[in-house]
Every structure is written in structure tokens, then in C-alpha cells.
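Changelog note: in this version the structure field was regenerated for every chain. One regenerated record is shown below for reference.
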Amino acid sequence: MPVFRAETFIRKKRDRAQLSAAEIRQFAEGVRDGSVSDAQIAAFTMATWFTGMTVAEQSLLTLAMRDSGRVLSWSGLDGPVLDKHSTGGVGDLVSLVLGPIIAACGGFVPMISGRGLGHTGGTLDKLESIPGFTTALDIERFTALVRSNGLAIVGQTDELAPADRRIYAVRDVTATVDSPPLMISSILSKKLAEGLDALVLDIKFGNGAFTPGPDAARELAREMTRVATESGVRCTALLTDMNAPLAPAAGNALEVMEAIRILSGEVADGRLYSVIVALSGELLHMGALADTPAATISINFGLCGPNMSVATACATGNNALGEAAV
């Protein structure tokens, strides 16, 4: 195999040449072991920001970053391994409710979450508003909790997708966080490291989201589902409106309290409830825990069991992309 030279790799990306699987894998390995410098990572991310990546290149980068660390294995589970990802928005506490729903209905959710970006609080920020709550767990404790409880939510560890972790740190200081190929590969590398059977994406649009209009959100959703599918995981996406805060409260501790209200059965309507039901239904359907994702029902959170057929609160289109009219 030819010796990998980072400058040659960067030049190819700059000149819009197709990157090979071997080159992308060697780049990720160099990022992980330190033989690729921060300056070279920055040059690559900026070249990618300007020239983009094909779906095949994004899939190869996703898999290379996933394989730079441990990939979780879930032998012996009696249900599907499922997760969701949201592009973020004000009052977006969906993960805090969706995770318990999926677990109560027979799925297993090893959710690796992130912190807030810009004007939004992340799932980890919300959970850490609970006194004494920790999201920094080692993999053994994390997997044990998923197996015993059906759900655990943690932050990214040094062992999971370490190449992505380093590339993201460079993107954060080089104005390349918003590069769609790098964003998609970063998100999916962590999700694929979870060892998922299926993934649902919540792509938000509007003045409270990073994607302002539905057309751009639709294109992002299509690209992400293509890359995820190419990388070997079943994936669907829903578009949801973020022109107004999703929850009736904004702030980490307040949003945790709202999630508790929903899980306690005090709230059974509204935009937030509809989004939760839509995403939960789509994910349960992909995991063969629901008959259909398209019928309207009302969830009784106290009676959710492994044979419950949960469906969505609104029509979700085809398996590649749905739009939640909420």
C-alpha cells in the first residue's frame, strides 16, 4: 500500500478529485494516532467546506471515523437497538421523552448525545441541570445500563469515534462546523458506533433552527438518509417546524420538568407531543415494534408495553423522508 501523505490527500480534495476508501481510512487513522496535524485537519475541513463530498465519500469518512474507536455490539438482546438525532432547536426536549418510550416498548436506546450549539441547549446540558446527574460514563457502565434499563444517555467518550472528536474540535475553531458533508459524517460516525439497527432523524427548519427553510432541510434530510443507508444502517427523517419554540418552556431545568410532565401523562397534545409521537412511531416501526408509522393514536405512557403498536401523530410520507405537519 502506498505511503499516506496528508498533503497529497488535501490537494486531491482541494482539486475536487475523488478520494479513495484507502485514503480516507488512512486519513482517519492519522487523525486518531496524531500523525496528521491540526493544521492538516484544518486544511482538509476548509477544502471540504468549499468543494463538498459525494455520498460515497461521506459514507467512507463516516465508517472510517466510526472504526477509529470501539463499535458497540449488542449480542443477546431481545429487541432492536434504536436511536434518534435532532439538528436542534429551542425547547427541543424530544430525546428525554422518546428514549423512555422506545425502551418501554421493547427497544434498546444507547444514546450518545451532545451539548448545545449556538442558541440551543443540548440533551446533555438539560440532563446535567439535575443535581448529581452525570453523563460521563465508561463504555462498560454505559452498555450495562442499556442492557438492564433499555436506555442510557451519555456524552461521547474517548473510545467512541475518536477521529471525529479531534476533527470536530478543529472544525469548531475554523468556521467549518456548518459544512454539510462534515456535519453528516460527524453525526453518523457516532450513531453508527452505537451499533444501531435503525435511526430516525429530526431535521428542523425555521427561524429557530440552523436550517432556515424547508427546501434546505429536505435536502439535508435526503443526504443524511442516503449516507446512513450507504453506511449500513436503516434511516428515515422527518422535517419539523422550528419557527416557534417546541416546548412551552425554554431553559435546561425547565425543559427537564416539562419532559417529566409528559412522561407522567399530564400532557397529551400540542406541537411537542405531536413531534414526540411522530418520531417514536417512525422508530418503533423501523424496529418492528409497531405495525405502521402512519396512523394517529394517543399514547398512554403508563401502559406502554412490548406488544404496543405505537404510530405517529401525523402522516410521514414514504420510508425515505416524511414531513411532520406540526
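Spot check on this record: The longest helix spans residues 214-230. The chain has twelve helices and six strands.
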